[in-house]
Amino acid sequence: MITHDVRVYPESERLPRAGQLAWKIAEVAADAVEVEPAVAEMIINRVIDNASVAMAAINRHPVTSARDQALAHARPGGATVFGLGPDMRVHAEWAAWANGTAVRELDYHDTFLAADYSHPGDNIPPILAVAQQCGADGRALLRGLATGYEIQVNLVRAICLHKHKIDHVAHLGPSAAAGIGTLLGLPTEVIYQSVQQALHVTTATRQSRKGEISSWKAFAPSHAGKLAVEAVDRAMRGEGAPSPIYEGEDSVIAWMLDGKAAHYLVPLPGASEPKRAILDTYTKEHSAEYQSQALIDLAFRMGRKVDQWEDVESILISTSHHTHYVIGTGSNDPQKFDPTASRETLDHSIMYIVAVALQDGAWHHVRSYLPERAQRPDTVALWRKISTVEDPDWTTRYHAEDPALKAFGGRIEIRMKDGRVIADELAVANAHSLGATPWARPDYIRKFRTLTEGVLDSAEVSRFLQVAESLPSLKAHELPELTLALPKGALGVGETRGIF
């Protein structure tokens, strides 16, 4: 890996193109290095994972809205849309929009956390959509997806968006554009302009993840993917972009991030170096914010030690800065204690999540968020006894470079009214690569079968898994098979219409 020092340059000291981060990203994307077997296997896992969570959300309102919008943009020979099978095609950018929304709706796919947050599986819908529309084969798709993961993960390692209240999809636009560039074998110049355009149009505030969290949380990544597709199309036609997009004196770093004194150390693969970043990412066993995964597993085992919930005096969660301030009481969001809050808000409340996990000893992507579950009086009472605090040691471990030290969990202390204290801690989720039960292909397949039970016919389940596991050898005409079809009449349709 090569570490690049990224800072702001005034116009009087204009940075040459070859020194710009967007150009270096484009060089990585244009490098025709092959995908290693372990990376290919993990990409297949994540394709299966994305399909799992998309099918579980297929008839939820935001997903239905996005799908209806996509269907208004039909295109013979275009890209497929989840739920409709391989024969129905739409324009690639609208497939990216519909499929990305389905994948993101339940907040249940893969994650990478470092200086900032990310769900790198959000790269899959736009890159796959372009692959289907442009007649790419499975090998090209693998290379494109490896790039998408590589770029997003390394931007997330180095550049914090959250502390400046910029939404994390600002790293997704460039990574998806770079991945599409790799997929299509585009020259460095074209990818460079695509990356710059994609970043320029995908910067937005984090209000989408603050306060009363709405359905836009699901739409934000798919919007970034759609804009990335459009950015690549413009660049392929010879159009340029604001430049230098990262380092310019009136650009992103100078005015949206750390300002004119900023220095970021961004790692990227060198020439001919394999792209392995996907191997550092992790998926979710439970349908909730990733920082809650280890705490859910911990709550399962701690809940068995409490006989009567009314005997609990208080519960304190000691955890990292990010967990405390984003999904804990450090956020100062009263909505995180509101029993009538949206599902999107509840899955960003570690207080709610721990309360339910303690009481139920289980977590379900639907039942754990039902209004009657959230509003149960004994749960509300317990929920409001829970608070979080930042522990510097957990923050240090959150940001650790050493995988053996890196942690996303915390410590839970349950204080009983009789003075007894029940305390325990867990560093990483059971499903994490260093967890008690690290996930492999059978676990991804089990998740897929669980989430599609009652949604898909068994024959369709088997067909998709066979196609997904054959991804590296798929021919161009077979790539549209990498989608799913619901039984006739099972797919929801929006009750209201918009402009399209």
UniProtKB/TrEMBL annotation:
Domain MmgE/PrpD N-terminal: 20-262
GO molecular function, one term: lyase activity
Domain MmgE/PrpD C-terminal: from-to ranges: 286-471
Lyase among keywords: yes
Lyase as UniProt keyword: yes
Keyword field: Lyase
Pfam families according to UniProt: MmgE_PrpD_C, MmgE_PrpD_N
Family assignment from sequence similarity: Belongs to the PrpD family.
PANTHER family, per the entry: 2-METHYLCITRATE DEHYDRATASE (PTHR16943:SF8), 2-METHYLCITRATE DEHYDRATASE-RELATED (PTHR16943)
Subunit structure: Monomer.
Official protein name in the record: MmgE/PrpD family protein
Organism ancestry: Bacteria, Pseudomonadati, Pseudomonadota, Alphaproteobacteria, Acetobacterales
